[in-house]
């Protein structure tokens, strides 16, 4: 049973590291048309070398693989003082024979004021911080080691969205240091959802210290001290009636939790960052569903993680070192076994999230499926670039 679910999802584990992205676009270059209209373009790349214990074809040797994890092209156009068109692409299984580019975001953005704005089209569903970060704005390299939400399930089948995106509409804004985002989306289409019901999602964050500065309602897990002192707590939730299971055994899907980010600038002593999250998935999965190959079966249980990092103030070469440690735990309610994972690593920060190098060592069996993988260790060396 566990093996069945794990096998069906493991083949896209590396590709799914590129689940989401914090900023809607990065203005690598901008062409001004007139006072109110412009076009911007940008790009992002994450590539890595991975060595995983007992993962070679022999089954008893370390695998050694270079992986193009993510390649993105960002486009945005200002068509009116208050209206923008955002179009981003992602390369799925980039570098492999079956790789292809697909639409990541296709957003009509109406930005009226701080308190009230609208995104319509294919865009991020409001969720927890790590899903709003995406890999490009996370702190550690492998942040997706806890079960993810419906729009982050298998990107090859994309039954309920892809890479954290779905077709729908979101109202978002801020009132002082309070930030909100509430949306309605297609969610699971077909399968168990024979009545074509919507998925509802929301995120509500309060900035106790400095207000986080990000595009729209997106997030980051570190600002490398550039955002000043930060302490933010957020509540998030998603639900869809008949959003899981099978045609014969539909099940309601619910998920909710809380996340926290604390970042303290220690003057000339560097920057301390602490991040944590607790999340519950409520899905009434049965043995019959698990035996159905067409089941949209999701994790049912509790998950949490804790991350601590320290940005060393001294420059070495043209960057700074940021060592970190992260612990993840997945505790299912039934059918599944518990899993955990510890990642110890260091970022070499050259230009914030636009240019960094990472080296990390991970040990454990937790992954984004919620089903324990091979209990072993992995070494990853990664490079991230954006413009």
Explain what you see:
The chain is mainly beta. The protein has a single domain (2-386), classed as Porin (Beta Barrel), CATH 2.40.160. The chain is globular, with a radius of gyration of 20 Å. It has a 16-stranded antiparallel β-barrel with strand order 2-3-4-5-6-7-8-9-10-11-12-13-14-15-16-17. Mean pLDDT is 90; it is low at 1-27. It is built from 3 helices and 17 strands.
What are the secondary-structure elements, in order, as H or E? HEEEEEEHEEEEEEHEEEEE
Give the spatial strand order of the biggest sheet.
2-3-4-5-6-7-8-9-10-11-12-13-14-15-16-17
Q: For the residues shown, what is the average pLDDT? A: 90
What CATH architecture label applies? Beta Barrel
CATH topology: Porin
The global form is globular
CATH class: Mainly Beta
- Taking all Cα atoms into account, the compactness measure Rg is 20 Å
How far the N terminus sits from the C terminus, by CA atoms, comes to 44 Å
User: Into how many domains do the coordinates divide?
Assistant: 1
Classification by helices and strands: mainly beta
Give unreliable regions as ranges: 1-27
Per-chain topology:
Blueprint (H helix, E strand, L loop, with lengths): L1 H9 L18 E4 L5 E15 L10 E18 L2 E10 L7 E12 L5 E8 L4 H5 L31 E11 L2 E8 L13 E9 L22 E16 L4 E16 L5 E13 L3 H4 L10 E11 L8 E13 L6 E13 L3 E10 L11 E11 L1
């Amino acid at each position: 049973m566990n093996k069945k679910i794990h096998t069906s999802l493991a083949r896209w584990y590396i590709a799914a590291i590129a689940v989401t992205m914090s900023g809607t676009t990065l203005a690598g270059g901008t062409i001004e048309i007139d006072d109110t209209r412009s076009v911007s373009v940008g790009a992002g790349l994450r590539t890595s070398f991975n060595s995983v214990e007992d993962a070679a074809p022999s089954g008893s040797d370390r695998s050694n693989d270079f992986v193009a994890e993510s390649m993105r092209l960002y486009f945005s156009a200002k068509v009116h003082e208050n209206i923008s068109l955002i179009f981003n692409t992602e390369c799925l299984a980039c570098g492999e024979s079956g790789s292809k580019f697909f639409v990541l975001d296709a957003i009509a953005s109406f930005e009226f004021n701080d308190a009230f704005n609208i995104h319509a089209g294919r865009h991020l569903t409001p969720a927890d911080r790590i899903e709003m970060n995406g890999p490009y704005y996370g702190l550690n390299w492998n942040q997706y080691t806890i079960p993810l939400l419906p729009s982050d399930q298998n990107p090859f089948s994309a039954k309920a969205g892809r890479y954290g995106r779905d077709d729908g509409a979101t109202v978002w804004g801020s009132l002082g240091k309070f930030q909100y985002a509430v949306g309605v989306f297609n969610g699971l289409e077909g399968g168990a959802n024979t009545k074509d019901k919507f998925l509802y999602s929301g995120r509500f964050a309060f900035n106790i210290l400095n207000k986080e500065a990000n595009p729209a309602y997106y997030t980051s897990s570190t600002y490398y001290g550039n955002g000043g002192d930060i302490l933010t707590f957020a509540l998030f939730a998603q639900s869809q009636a008949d959003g899981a299971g099978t045609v014969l055994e539909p099940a309601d899907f619910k998920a909710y939790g809380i996340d926290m980010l604390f970042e303290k600038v220690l003057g000339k002593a560097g920057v301390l960052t602490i991040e944590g999250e607790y999340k519950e998935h409520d899905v009434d999965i049965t043995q019959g569903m698990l035996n159905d190959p067409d089941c949209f079966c999701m994790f049912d249980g509790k998950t949490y993680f804790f991350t601590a990092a320290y940005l060393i103030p001294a420059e070495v070469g043209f960057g700074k070192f940021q060592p970190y440690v992260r612990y993840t735990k997945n505790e299912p309610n039934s059918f599944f076994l518990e899993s955990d994972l510890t990642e110890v690593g260091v970022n070499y920060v050259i230009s914030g999230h636009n240019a960094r190098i990472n080296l990390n060592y991970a040990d454990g069996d937790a992954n984004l499926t919620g089903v324990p993988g091979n209990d072993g260790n992995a070494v990853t060396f990664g490079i991230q670039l954006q413009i």
